[in-house]
Write a structure and sequence with these properties.
The chain is an alpha/beta fold. It has two domains: 131 residues, Urease, subunit C, domain 1, CATH 2.30.40; 287 residues, TIM Barrel (Alpha-Beta Barrel). It has 15 helices and 19 strands. The strands form three sheets. Strands 1, 2, 3, 4, 5, 14, 15, 16 and 17 form a nine-stranded mixed β-sheet that branches. The protein has an eight-stranded parallel β-sheet with strand order 6-7-8-9-10-11-12-13. Strands 18-19 form a two-stranded antiparallel sheet. Helix 11 crosses helix 12. The radius of gyration is 22 Å and the shape is globular.
Length: 482
């Protein structure tokens, strides 16, 4: 993108939230079944929403900025169904960690030492990295706010990044905190009522400060959806069955992982219309429960899942990795099934995993009517993916190019609610030097408090897991260990 492109970016930035933008002549993947795909089409953004999608658009409101998208693929932004964003300052420090080591470093190690400013910078690093990777929305499963001030710092990071954030609020899993939760949820809900890009859900994880039915009642009294993380194994299966029998499951409940659940639990999930977020790389690499993400079981239940990053301390932070890993894992097991006596599963397609990465995440986060597709009237969360790079020439399937041929370097532009957040491969208005300095200072403070050191191959000085309740929870999900 040269001088002319820079001038376009300047106009987009100067025009702000209500700018009219015409994306002209790109290959368009709408993720809307009624619209489908276009080899070449225009997309009009007006007042922060998708105003029109057609092969050619003549109408241009006053002040419309025209963007030449002829060498790009236009698509909806990625939606991350579950990420622990407060850990942003810990990125890639434990890439070979198993579950005990992960817990030793995070919940059992540095988590208790987080100040509000550490929550702020950790989240800001995560949110900006997500935008750079094409995520326009992140479900932030936030389970380390030790006071209301910690939550306020997280909200500040959302606003400054410009991302669309779904704040899933939970208490810390270990260490001291001021017991502001769940009482503070009403205040957060009031704040979100005046926010354009931030919504709120109640999150349920390891620590159960009150019985789960009571927490679900609190969420519903405030009009909040419910996100349940760490749903795996026999204990989780029993809990899902009990909640189903009590009539407490429903489409407002989203479960994360869903690994190694029993058939009775899956039937309860199906009957109630519960949403599912897959954490494919997390299950497989860190080794959660059986380590086998339930991709096929989710599909057999007729559920269109979301995909998620989970933890950047150990895992990749882009959706391209999630899509390809999910696709290849399911197709590998489906192919293996052909050699047995059972009926082979239908192979996932590239279009399937792209749906999971967009509409699937939107629905799982309670925003399916607002984002996830380039549907007229929805909010304009839009990506431009480079289709003319050397690795994608001379051009083929748009969906295949996105899923198989692209990475974060191919993301030319990112719009959130019609506002430009990335252009020409660079985030807009970000002081990277300051960000690096603040993230490093925060990490050094936390590690000094925890007694950790960063060595050549990662972290040193990490003790064995002290709070065995955290590990046994994820192994057996017993109430005694929670």
């Amino acid at each position: 993108m040269g001088t002319e492109s820079s001038a376009v970016a300047e106009r987009l930035i100067a025009s702000g939230t209500g700018a009219a933008v015409l994306l002209r002549g790109g290959a368009v993947v709408t993720m809307d079944p009624g619209l489908g795909q276009f080899a070449s089409a225009d997309v009009l953004i007006e007042d922060g929403r998708i105003a029109e999608v057609a092969e050619h658009i003549d109408r241009m409101p006053n002040g419309t900025t025209v963007v030449d998208a002829s060498a790009s693929i236009v698509m909806p932004g990625f939606v991350d169904g579950h990420r622990h964003s407060w850990q942003g300052s810990l990125r890639r420090l434990a890439t070979d960690a198993d579950l005990p080591e992960y817990l030793s470093i995070t919940h059992d190690g540095v988590a208790a030492h987080y100040r509000p400013e550490d929550m702020y910078i950790g989240n800001l690093v995560s949110m900006l990295g997500a935008l750079d990777a094409g995520f326009t929305t992140v479900l932030d499963f936030s389970h380390n706010s030790r006071s209301a001030a910690h939550s306020d710092a997280v909200f500040r990071s959302y606003r400054e990044s410009g991302i669309r954030a779904i704040h899933a609020s939970a208490p810390p899993n270990a260490g001291e905190w001021d017991n502001h939760w769940p009482g503070d949820l009403a205040r957060l809900a009031e704040i979100c009522a005046s926010e354009e890009l931030i919504t709120l859900r109640l999150a349920i994880d390891m620590r159960r400060v009150r019985p789960v039915p009571e927490l679900m009642s609190i969420a519903r009294s405030l009009g909040l959806g419910i996100h349940m993380d760490g749903v795996m194994g026999e204990g989780s299966s029993d809990e899902i069955v009990e909640l189903g029998h009590a009539g407490l499951l429903g489409p407002d409940v989203t479960i994360v992982h869903a690994t190694s659940l029993g058939e009775t639990a899956w039937r309860a999930i199906e009957r109630a219309g519960v949403r599912v977020v897959l954490a494919t790389t997390s299950d497989e690499q860190i080794g959660l429960a059986s380590g086998m993400p339930p991709i096929q079981r989710v599909l057999d239940a007729g559920i269109r899942p979301a995909l998620s990053i989970d933890v950047e301390i150990a895992l990749a932070g882009d959706m391209f990795t999630q899509m390809r890993t999910t696709l290849m894992t399911q197709r590998m097991f489906a192919t293996l099934g052909k050699t047995g006596s059972g009926t082979a599963a239908k192979l996932l397609s590239n279009a399937d995993v792209l749906e999971f990465a967009t509409m699937g995440g939107a629905v799982a986060g309670g925003l399916g009517d607002r984002i996830g597709s380039l549907t007229v009237g929805k909010e304009a969360d839009v990506l431009l993916i480079a289709a003319d790079g050397i690795n994608n020439l001379p051009g083929g399937s748009s969906v295949g190019t996105i899923v198989q041929g692209s990475d974060r370097s191919h993301i030319r532009a990112v719009f959130v609610g019609g506002v430009l957040r990335k252009w020409g491969g660079q985030l807009v208005g970000i002081d990277l030097d300051s960000l690096r300095r603040d993230a490093l200072e925060s990490r050094e403070f936390l590690f000094a408090k925890a007694g950790f050191r960063v060595g050549r191959d990662g972290l040193e000085g990490v003790p064995k897991l002290r709070d065995v309740g955290l590990l046994s929870y994820l192994g057996s999900h017993s109430d005694e260990s929670a």
